[in-house]
């Protein structure tokens, strides 16, 4: 009997095929390499690890020798255990705020994605957030420096954030990489924003002083498969309301605007930054259009939920019980991706309507 493929599985396979097409040059370069990804159990690790773990499966390439570090703070993910069953994938319970294990192999490439990225959770764990973004990146950079003479690391990618720009002046939107930021160093989001900024400073100075080939990606509002329905960010909250059959609760007036980048497009960009980015350079990875209000984004998702998943609720506005829920929340967020486009050949392809359809189809099979 042929096993029926679920809509969620179909979405993942479609995404992976698109990444394989749009980031082919990067995957060619990574084939046969020893790659470490920290924080691999998180959102950004989901599709990136699926792509890396399946290099060499019927494509004529040598497989990636893949090592994943994660402290498993939010549990061991079933999908990560499945990937870890492959002979060339090793999943290690390791907290990157501690030095690398003494028996760590000589990695060719490193991806540092270990961080708490949801505002709700990083405000609950501010010191842990700072430690991952500062001490964690320092441990990895020290590892790179120690291997400069023997078995040098070919490249390291540091996942920074669009939050390093804070709430940009309107004259600086779309925002370029040379914008210095308008950021609070003491506000409720500062543990995340400022630690990402310091993480970038460490990367740039290790590149300049020691010649470490470390590059920086600044994600802009990624969404899609891998982002837990319990993450407490915008789309997971909407999806949870849809699939639990209740009203969608919007905890703001919805006037803030964002551009939303589907994760398959973003992962293609991150792979390009890892393998072809210039040392010490930051790259915005996101999409420039459409810049849409939170209210319109929620209404789009609600319409898809009604049409494709039988949702019959209403969108209602309430105030959060958390008095700092919106403190220092940027009014607008929109990247200038010209640098990544011209230097790396990065281009997002998945439109917002299509991305939301895929995301909700994936959530339909991933409600836990």
From TrEMBL:
Keywords, in A-Z order: Decarboxylase, Lyase, NAD
SUPFAM superfamilies: NAD(P)-binding Rossmann-fold domains
GO MF, one example: NAD+ binding
Span of the signal peptide: none
Pfam family, one: Epimerase
Cofactor needs: NAD(+)
A GO CC term attached to the entry: cytoplasm
GO biological process, one term: D-xylose metabolic process
Alphabetical list of InterPro entries matching this protein: Epimerase_deHydtase, NAD(P)-bd_dom_sf, UXS-like
Residue span, NAD-dependent epimerase/dehydratase domain: 35-286
Keyword Lyase belongs to the record: yes
PANTHER family, per the entry: UDP-GLUCURONIC ACID DECARBOXYLASE 1 (PTHR43078:SF6), UDP-GLUCURONIC ACID DECARBOXYLASE-RELATED (PTHR43078)
Protein name, per record: NAD-dependent epimerase/dehydratase family protein
Species: Ramlibacter albus
């Amino acid at each position: 009997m042929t096993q029926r493929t679920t809509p969620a599985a179909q979405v993942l396979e479609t995404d992976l095929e698109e990444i394989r097409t749009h980031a082919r040059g990067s995957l060619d370069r990574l084939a046969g390499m020893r790659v470490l990804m920290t924080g691999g159990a998180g959102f950004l690790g989901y599709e990136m690890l699926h792509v890396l773990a399946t290099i060499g499966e019927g494509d004529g390439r040598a497989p990636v020798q893949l090592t994943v570090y994660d402290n498993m703070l939010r549990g061991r993910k079933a999908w990560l255990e499945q990937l870890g069953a492959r002979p060339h994938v090793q999943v290690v319970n390791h907290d990157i705020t501690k030095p690398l294990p003494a028996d760590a192999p000589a990695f060719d490439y490193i991806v540092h994605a270990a961080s708490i990225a949801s505002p709700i959770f990083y405000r609950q764990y501010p010191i842990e957030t700072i430690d991952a973004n500062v001490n964690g990146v320092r441990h990895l950079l020290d590892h790179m420096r120690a291997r400069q003479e023997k078995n040098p690391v070919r490249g390291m990618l540091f996942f920074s954030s669009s939050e390093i720009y804070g709430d940009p002046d309107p004259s600086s939107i779309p925002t370029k990489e040379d914008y210095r930021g308008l950021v609070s160093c003491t506000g409720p989001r500062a543990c995340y924003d400022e630690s990402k900024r310091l993480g970038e400073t460490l990367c740039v100075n290790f590149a300049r002083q020691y010649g470490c080939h470390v590059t920086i990606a600044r994600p802009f509002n990624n969404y899609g498969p891998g982002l837990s329905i319990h993450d407490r960010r915008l789309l997971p909250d909407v999806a949870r309301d849809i699939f639990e059959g209740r009203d969608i609760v919007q905890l703001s007036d919805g006037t803030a605007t964002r551009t939303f980048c589907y994760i398959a497009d973003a992962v293609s960009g991150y792979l390009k930054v890892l393998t072809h980015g210039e040392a010490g350079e930051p790259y915005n990875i996101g999409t420039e259009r459409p810049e849409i209000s939170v209210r319109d984004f929620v209404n789009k998702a609600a319409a898809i939920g009604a049409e494709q998943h039988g949702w019959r609720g209403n969108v209602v506005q309430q105030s959060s019980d958390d008095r700092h829920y919106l403190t220092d929340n940027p009014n607008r967020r929109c990247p200038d991706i010209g640098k990544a486009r011209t230097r790396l050949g990065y281009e997002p392809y998945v439109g917002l309507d299509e991305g939301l359809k895929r995301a909700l189809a994936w959530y339909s099979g991933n409600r836990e």
